[in-house]
Each structure stands twice: as C-alpha cells, then as structure tokens.
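Journal club prep, notes for RB
We'll compare a predicted complex against what the paper describes. Inputs for the protoporphyrin IX containing FE case:
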Amino acid sequence: MLGTVYIALNDMVVDRHGVVAWDKILDEVKPDSEGVFTSIETYQDTELTQFIAAIAALEGISPTDVEREFGQYLFAVLNRKSPIFTQLAPNLFSYLRSVETVIHPDVKKRFTDSSLPTITCSRGDARELLFEYRSARKLCYLSEGLILAAAQHYGEAVSLEHSSCMHRGADHCSIRVQRHGE
Ligand code: HEM
C-alpha cells in the first residue's frame, strides 16, 4: 500500500504512545523500509497487518479494533490533505458514493501504481445505505473506521451493521449504514 497510509499509522502511534513505542514496534516488525516511508512509494501489505498486530498487542485490544480506529485517524489525515472531497459532497451518503466515482479514481490518476478496493453504494432509503466492499486486502474494518469518521465530520449519527464479511467466508463485505436523528 502507498506510503501515505504507513506514514499515517506511524503518526497515530507516535501521537498516542510516543516515539519510543513506535521504535519498539519497528524492532518487532522489522519492515524492509526500516520505517522510512515516502508517501508515493508502495510498501508490502503484509507489513501493514504486522504493524496492526503489534499495535493491538501494545494497546491490549483486538487487531480489528486497531484497524477500525486507524480508519478513523486516516480519514482526518486524508481530509486534511484533500478537503475538496468533503467540500464537494453535501452529506455522508453523497460522500460515500463519491469514494468509488470521484475520490479513488482521482487517487488512481495521481498514483498509477495504487491498488484500490471496489466499493458499491446502493441506497435503501434516505436513512439507509448499503456499502459493499471488495478487495483482496480484506481491509473492511478500515472502511468501517473511515465511514464512522466521515459521519462525524458531517455531524451525522450512524450505526453500522457488517452483515456479511470476507473474514467469515463471504465473497465481499456488506456494511449497512443507518442514519439516526432529525
Ligand atoms: C469513507 C471514505 C473512504 C473509504 C471507505 C475508503 C476505503 C479505502 C480502503 C478500504 C482502502 C484500502 C485498500 C483496499 O482495501 O484494497 C483504501 C485505500 C486508499 N484510499 Fe480510500 N477510502 C475512503 C476515502 C479516501 C480519501 C478521502 C482518499 C484521498 C483523498 C483516499 C485515498 C486512498 C489511498 C491513497 C489508498 C491507498 C491505495 C494504495 O495504497 O494503493 N481514500 N481506501
């Protein structure tokens, strides 16, 4: 995955636990990069999984929770770098639809080596959207975190129901996003 993602993970750990904790994680994971990431270079996906496992052990929570929390952290990083995408979308559902039609195609144009998931959004009604995720990387909990942080950005209260999941043998993940309130 692109260095941007690893740099954000590095920053999240340093923000939460300090630079010594990150150095310890580097000692455990021993990435080929030795922890020097460039935003436009690509690094091994297996190292992301190893980093997440090491952070989970450090925090005493599950790798799933770390991946979701990292999704929330990553949203803030991406939105700070490219605020245009939230500016263009008036609400959460319109933003989520734009990930596949606008945001990721723009990433692909800028970084031809990038490899992006396939996301399909279909709308049940004004309060419900079905977010379907397909990727060999199976980073569906990262998606959950990104969606939750985007909802917070729009001030919309949502709940997520991850009804089918590639980690439970399904061929794709289905995340039902339900809006609450007004
Ligand atoms: C709710 C919003 C978003 C969702 C659900 C989402 C979902 C994802 C997921 C799950 C991945 C991991 C790759 C995979 O699963 O195969 C990914 C990768 C990526 N996304 Fe998004 N994304 C969102 C918003 C954005 C935004 C706003 C940007 C940039 C401005 C962005 C740029 C990227 C980049 C650069 C990668 C890495 C691609 C690579 O390393 O090859 N995403 N996205």
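Talking point for the session: The longest helix spans residues 63-81.
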